[in-house]
Amino acid sequence: DDLVSIAVGTDGHFLVLSGNQVYRLAAGVFTPLFRIGLFSTLPPYTAMNKYGMIYRSGDTETGLRDNRSGKIRTIPFEQVNYRHNRFTCIDSLFYFNEISGATEYNLNTGSTRTFLPGKQVSCTFRDRTGNFWFTTLDQGIYRLNSDEFRTVRLQLPNEELSSAWAINRIGNRLMVGDNHNSVFVLSLPEMRLLATHTILAVAKNRIEHIDSLGNNGYYAASTSGMDKLDAGFMRLQIVKAGIKSITQKDDAKIIFAAFWGVGVFDLQKFKITDTLWRDRATTVYFRRDTVYIGTLNGLYAISPDKRATFLGTKIPFFKKRISAIAQSPDGTLWVASYDVGLVGYKDGKITAVLSKQQGLTSDLCRTILVHDNILWVGTERGLNRIALDQPGYPVTQYTSQDGLGSDIVNSIYADSTVVYVGTPAGISYFDETRIDHSEGCQLYLLSVQNSGRERIDDTASLSLPYNDKHLRLEYAGISYRSVGGIVYRYRLIGLDTVWRTTKGNFLEYPTLPAGSYDLQLQAINKFGTRSAILSLPFTAIAPFWQTAWFEGLLLVVFLLLVWLFVTIRIRQIHRRQTEKEELNRKVTEMEHLALQAQMNPHFIFNCMNSIQQYIFDQDIFAANKYIAGFSRLIRSTLQNSTRPFITLPEEISYLSGYLSLEKLRFKEKMDYSIEVDDAVNDPRVVIPPMLIQPYVENSMRHGLRHKVDGMGHIWLAFKSNGDHLVITVEDNGIGRKKAGSFKTREHIEYQSKGMSLTAERIRMINSKYAVPIFVDVIDLEDSSGRPQGTRVVMQLPFFHIMLEKENL
Prior knowledge:
By secondary structure, this protein is α+β, with helices and mostly antiparallel strands. It is 19% helix and 42% strand.
């Protein structure tokens, strides 16, 4: 007969299925045990272990035998599914892997479950940590995150999936409100869907709360308002309010938060009876005659006399966007935010701060719930369980990796030990007392790189050459339910004995001193389970120059070099002193040359011609005004040239006087404007004198002088950009390229050395100070490429700050 299947029996000996006979193999002897009615002896249609066996017993049925009791049960199946049927035995769980999902049969209880309906499952197996895996045909591989987490999909009659929001137990029913104005009724504890009620089919409002009115009716608070419903969930009355959150005031009244404010609603009269707040609110909570109102601007407290107090005045956290509020049994008020986690507030002060740094999955808290000294926090990256009765408030995370339908948590409801979580994927639920908060953690070394090659095969006796002691290690911690939550700790004995932590999956040591080392590495998953310590001993070989004889030779050479160094150093100091004096002398010369270039004979000649013209025209008033301005400019130039720095207001005054003379000389054919930011309009701000005037003169002489269309204009701007003073000189002249052609034809008349002298002066200043001056010249063009002027941007350091530091 054909050998069909082999397994290990309860006594440790082999069980062998050959044909339709099962044998016990012990000491080389086959002993017949029992026979089964096989329809097919193909191995894929038969599976066996010590607990029992599964086999095809007929054309449309499967046989299940319990080896412990000898009982046989037959299960029918559809012929179409059998074409891809494969059997798997995992302890007392037997799996039918079919064309449409995998069916689990529990040999102990006789119960069945179906996984992955619609998927063509080819095989089912369990790994060493207890996770179940399902392979499919052309549709990938799936892992069952947790057997304790269940999710009920909320599907409307039109097959549209709903997101779970409001959750409440009423009797032996669980009411779930969705985001399509519908209520799903589920039986407890089976969580079987009994009915789906749509309050208004044309609306897609989110139901925030649902509860009983006591007389076979219900009320639902939603983003459309307050609905009064009969026993069949038909709408009897609606009060429009746009509700976002509610809190119970007493048996007959609730307080609600809406987009327009906060009000009191009487459930018996079914109407709004009072308004407490007239501004947008995100959440509301009532405690001890005080109403706490969360807004996008912070947290407010409303006293019984309706006086509002902003709690963010004393506590900065309460200026954040508030998302939810709850109270723990010890009287602590827990306030959550949309961006910085949540805090505990008691007796007028913050008693606890919880954020991602303390272990939350995210700082964006969407909803919170306190139940039996457990604070549940829902975020957009999972659910968090915080034990309020334990020191340090330890946090346990639950995400889709653990079995939640989605990481986005809309709402939380707890009933005894069962926790219900509303998500966009439906309602997930689990018994927190049955959750296994542990999982194995394994660590594997993936790569050891040195000298540009892989050396993982040399780890038994790894030696690093002295000319390349660069070491890089890559590793991986395996813990499926801790995806993204594995932390590694390591230490390199021989260099350091302190344990350090990292979330990276590699370590790199660019260079290591010669010696013997032992790298120890350990992985820790999100449940605190630690892997075995991985140890990698290795040696860094010492070069010959680190031997004793070579070090003695170095000492002798060192003494000779010290004598030589001292001698050379003294000479360098003398030379630098001489260079410094020469630099100061050149700076002084450049300042005087700049003075001569800025007040050049041509400018003086033009000014005198203008004065002469006013006299010829017998315009004595204009001539006097021009002479007065010219004399002030000459006096300012002489005064400023003797000082290393002048204040920015003095420089602006000087430039303004210069431009006003040029404006008179051009007979109102040009104009100028000066813009100064408040941040730099300070007498403490200083700059080198007469550094800007050559660029202004260049704009006048080469940019505006030959301009024939429209009035010329020069803009000066003084602004602050971080640690720099930015000065902009911009004109609407003919541009540098066209001005160059005029300059070439007129070079005999005038050649300005102001720009070259200014550039040399800037170079000398930059060599003296740590932060340099930058000058950028930009040609302005319109969309067709025609010149529109020139812009010069100068970036100067704040010299007054540098000078203060030097004095200190």
